[in-house]
Amino acid sequence: MEDGMGDLFDHIEDLLDFPDDVLGLAEPCGHNGGLLLPSLPAPAANGLPDGVGDDALHGFTTRSNKFSSEEHKLGPLEWMSKFLDDSDSFSHDLPGCDGINNNVNGEDNGVQTKARGHHSIFRTSSPVSVLEADTMGGGGGGDSYSSSSSSSSTSASYSNGGNETTILLPPLSPPEPPSALVVPARARSKRPRPATFSPCHHVAAPYLPPSSDAVAIPNSLSAATSSDPESIGESCPAPPPPKKKKSKKKSPATAGAADGEEAGPPPPVRKCMHCEIQKTPQWRAGPMGPKTLCNACGVRYKSGRLFPEYRPAASPTFVPSIHSNSHKKVVEMRIKASQKCATEGAATSSSSDGCDLLEYIRRRESPTALKIAGIITGSKHEKRRLLGGMLNDCVAGKSSAKMRAPKIASSSLVATLTCLQFAFAMYATFLLYYMSPSVDLRSKADFTWATRIAQHWKQFIGHPHVLSSIQDIPAAVDSPATVCEFERIDFSQKKSDDALMIKLKRELYDEVLAFQKANSGTESLAELTRMKSKWSRGGPNIPKITVILNHFKRKTLCAQLDSLLNQTLPFYNLWVLSFGSPNEVSLRRIVESYNNSRISFISSSYDFKYYGRFQMALQTEADFVYILDDDMVPGKKMLEILSHVAGTDKYNNSVLGSIGRILPFRQKDFTFPSYRKFRSKEAGLYLPDPAYDITVERIVQVDFLSSSWFLSADLVKTLFVETPFTFMTGEDLHLSYQLQKYRNAGSYVLPIDPSDKDTWGDSEHRLAYVSETTAIFKDVVQARDDQWWRALSAGYVTRWATLYPQKIDALFYAHSLGEVRSLAPLLEKFRATVGRKAYIVVSGGSFCSCQEAVTVLRWPENVCRERRFKIFDLEIGAISGTSNSEVPVVQAVYSSLRGLLKIHNPSLLIAVDDADQKVKNALKMAAEGTANITALVLLPRAAVAKVLWMADLRPSALPSWNRMRITVNVITQNRATSLRRLLGSLQNAHYLGDEVRLSFNMDSKVDQETLKVVGSFQWAQGPKFIRRRIIHGGLIRAVSESWYPSDDDDFGLLLEDDIEVSPYYYVWIKYALLAYHYDPQVSLPELASISLYTPRLVEVVKERPKWNATEFFKKIHPNTPYLHQLPCSWGSVFFPKHWREFYAYTNARFTEDAKENPVQIPKSRTNGWQASWKKFLIDMMYLRGYVSLYPNFPDQASFSTNHMEPGAHISAKDNVVKHNKEDFEVPLMKAEFTKLMPAGKLPPANTLPVLNLFNQAVSLKALKAAGAKLRQDLISCDEAEIVMVDHSTGLPRNCTSWLGLDD
User: What family name appears in the similarity comment (predicted)?
Assistant: First the structure.
């Protein structure tokens, strides 16, 4: 538009700035240098010279029988009326020299003389119809005389729609020639002059009065009139050829610059004097002479059927509203015009010229009038073409004419031209303002103010009669019926005859619908309309909807506009987009033909493909956006239905449409097929799909929508959160994927009423899809397959993932190649373990691409291309780009991982603990937001190789990885050196990234050195607590009161300061807890503690014999762990439930004198132990059948050892038992221990061997029987019963039989 308007304003100056000769100030009339003018008397009171009345200058005033005296005041502006009324050119209505000399006497010869003077002097015959020029027949130049009129007749016949109206006229007498006055004029120089705006080329012939008294006529005009009849129909009479001069031949350059020579005129262009056609098979004779009509017009003229309404279809002056090339239609048009004239013009026929139909047609079909109408109302290209043509015609006519008519100099003309130029400048200013990018183009510019000004001031720029004639000019904007004539919807419904395909597609649709009905529900159209909605057509909340139509080649715009304009709920505005379309001109014409202020046309020469319409949707101010492909013609109720459903609570965060797609399902070989795979149920389906007789009669959720989208305007921006996989295709999938990923918004296909097309999203139902007959380019299929697979790999929860939720053991995340290398051993261990599934997710892009990751993992290169779950590339760069902000990275990682966790439901999400903090935050949010339990495991890189046993745990135990909380309780008193050794071993242990709390427990008499060691120790694994008693309580209180569980996941490790632990002690505890305590498939309620120590003696027997567990269990497995009824005091983790029982039991049975203790275990030396907390724990475990888990490795290697340093019991004065250090000090485990176990892992719980208090192999049931038989618990029970305890308090609750308990 800018180019076109630029050309327009470039020519405005040329159009309006006329040279002097246009105003008749310096224009000679002939070759003699003199100007022939009549004698001009002195000016009269009316402002005109004496002798020159209104009749002589009729062309610049009005007809006396039409206008009042008031209207004569507008005489100086009559040039504007004539320019628009006669619709030819300025020179047509200005008198020529010959005309002035032929009629300047001012005599009144009656009406006929006055009419003749008007038509012959100030009007030239019409250049587009020979039927209007009666000069060729010898009469005056009347406007609409038929070809049968003559100069001698006393009546004139006016053709009026097929009827004739006869007006009696007085006898015609030729006017007497006036006396000529020769006015000297400056001789015309031979210098070249610029072309002026003088389109005189349509002048056919001057008026020649029938008198023999001829006046002076220019030679060129006389010659053209008398000797060359074919030149009459040309644009301007050509001057006679210059006389040839004998001269020497000159070069073209020299010849062109010769003095006194001017270039010869261009050869005349022959045109049909009726229709202006320039090319015809044969030129024929007409009323203006031989070879003046084209073949078609000449044939009709000869047969008497040539009327002004007739035009050949190829005529440049053909206007469909007033012309026809059919004689039958011409007759109908004339009859219709006659009837209209009879009804509307009867009242004024007596005082006017009657219903001059031919004059009316002549004015309307004048080329200049048609061009002006086209410039005013035409399109950009039409305005540019017409204006350029007018200027070219004007320049050509000026340069070829040797004789020009003198112009009347008038100050009114100059003033009017100045005003017109100023008006054009104002219009250009406002137009450029509204074209400025700073102006909001979302709504159309309002130019009604200009219309009001024009209506108010039009009386000052032209006569009402003239303006009414201008209003009769038909607008160049066509009607919708005209521009839509050739739009046809070419479509034939496709049907599949493949019975297998119909069966597979129907089964899949029924499966999807049944699942949705069982989980979230699905409603019919009637049920949806009954739901409560925020929006309603007649309620207080009427939604604003912006409709966007994107068109390229299909010819469906008219059908779409007709449907949308007749919606039961009107749209707010409608934008028709044309991006790089070859049909832009026709699309613009269609939009303009509807002339609706709510409909806008937006075009660009650049093809924005499928995403451009969504970019435009970002500009809307409406509540909703309805985007339609050019193959969708919605029913008349669609906007009402869509807005109602979008206003319900259930579907307000959704995108709605009429066509959807279910993406492929996984096949039996664990791969995904192409969505175009033939004869495959897993390939997915379209909904609806008439080809397979699938109609959507209940709302159904799909993976993505196609062809139409109705969504909240706020949701549109979500499409551009991530850079699309490609801009060439796939905007439908990308929209639904982004909405689900970032807004948790679903995509739904609305149901229809099969009997009511107004409820259909596509009333033409052009949505059939038959894979075996529909051709799609292979590269497009590959691109779309890659796109949906990448979306699925980045967390897109498809219908398949919802119907068939997966369950894997671990999902690894690596943000860099270094993290891939660190996690690789554990990943391979998971993938190598039978029955385990683990995948890895890489960040992608510049961080860690899939290709780089598979190289590190030594996987095949095609892993990144095959549609099989193994590695997922998130393409983080698609959203974060080069941003330094953590927000895009956190958003991308979180949203993608959330979808992947929902699809695959891993038990563990594993990453390294030194990853970027923002990445760890995103992983944490994703793991915590899962409905199923997924534990986030952040492992130190050095610890990865030490937790390979993770793959050996049952999948049911893995989610509890982070549940346990272990508190290390150190009991210390005045052994600072031993304390330092213990703290050093604790600090060097592997904690697998877990938080471990450390608590110090000291008696009141602790020494200063110990306090300094405790106070200065830095614990990096978690919080540190210090407890010190005020009153000395002894060892029994120091141990038993050192820890109390806060919940069932709080475990206590009790360590005296002479203990030293192995670096793997925490690994052993965590492994054992996950395998035997947190596995819901394992039932081992008797397990009360986990020992770090392996004893070498049978402690409860008086002789204390040596005992080697490796030798004892060699028939089972030499290194199998085992269950023992004896608790360990040299490094053991106690379970919270059993520790509460121990508290309650000790509180009830505690006594300083061991002999007063009622519990006496047969043959146990523990019965005589004094002031020992362990004695009360042994009694409780014996009575209730509890056990501890012990490690068993070669040479009794353990996770803790006792250095037997002097203390409360060792080397005490009252202790008669001598302790050999070698019997208690065992080696510590310094390396990975799982490879020493049976099958390299902890054995199942039901295979663990069980020992009683005396190291005898028994069953768990036998332990319960022995305790029940003693009947010495806190409450009395039968021998077949044991005490049941309330685990929240530890207090005994009741007795229950142990016979029904399993081992």
Answer: Belongs to the type IV zinc-finger family. Class A subfamily.
Cα–Cα distance, 1032 to 218 (Å, whole number): 144
Q: How far apart are CA 696 and CA 700, in angstroms?
A: 8
CA 532 to chain centroid, in Å, comes to: 29
Q: Do 603 and 584 contact (CB within 8 A), yes or no?
A: yes
Q: In a 3-state reduction of DSSP, which class is residue 251?
A: coil
Rounded CA-CA distance 44/38 in Å is 16
- Locate 1296 and state its tokens: 């229950």
Q: Are 941 and 912 in contact (CB under 8 A)?
A: yes
What confidence tens digit (pLDDT) does each residue in 1228-1262 have?
Answer: 999 999 999 999 999 999 999 999 999 999 999 99
Q: pLDDT tens across 612-662, in order?
A: 999 999 999 999 999 999 888 999 999 999 999 999 999 999 999 999 999
**Spatial separation of the C-alpha atoms in residues 117 and 1129, rounded to whole Å:** 138
Amino acid at 701: Q
Integer Cα distance of 216 and 102 in angstroms: 9
Residue given tokens 């929508």 in the structure block: 705
Range 711-742 burial, b when 16+ CB lie within 10 A, else e? bbbebbebbebbebbeeebbbbbbbbbbbbbb
Secondary structure element (H or E) that encloses residue 364, with its range: helix 357-364
Buried b (16+ CB within 10 A) or exposed e, 528-541: beeeebebbeeeee
In which order are the strands placed within the sheet that holds 659-662?
685-687, 659-662, 704-706
Separation of CA 323 from chain center: 48
Q: What are phi and psi of 1263, to 5 degrees?
A: -65, -40
Q: How far apart are CA 71 and CA 77, in angstroms?
A: 11
- Cβ partners under 8 Å of residue 1149, min gap 6: 1157, 1158, 1159, 1176, 1179, 1274
Q: What is the DSSP letter of 43?
A: B
Tens digit of each residue's pLDDT (9 = 90 or more) over 327-370: 888 888 888 887 776 666 544 444 344 344 445 444 444 455 44
Residues 6+ apart with CB under 8 A from 628: 547, 548, 549, 550, 560, 634, 707, 708
Tally Cβ neighbours within 10 Å of residue 1031: 7
Q: How far does CA 600 lie from the centroid of its chain? A: 19
Tokens of 930: 């899962």
Report the relative pairing of strands 659-662 and 704-706 from DSSP bridges. antiparallel
Comparing C-alpha atoms, which of 899, 954, 890 is closest to residue 931?
Answer: 899
**Is the pTM higher than 0.85?**
no
- Measure the CA–CA gap between 180 and 1205, rounded to whole angstroms: 152
Angle at 350 between CA 344 and CA 354, to 5 degrees: 55
Nearest to 998 by CA among 1288, 989, 1174: 989
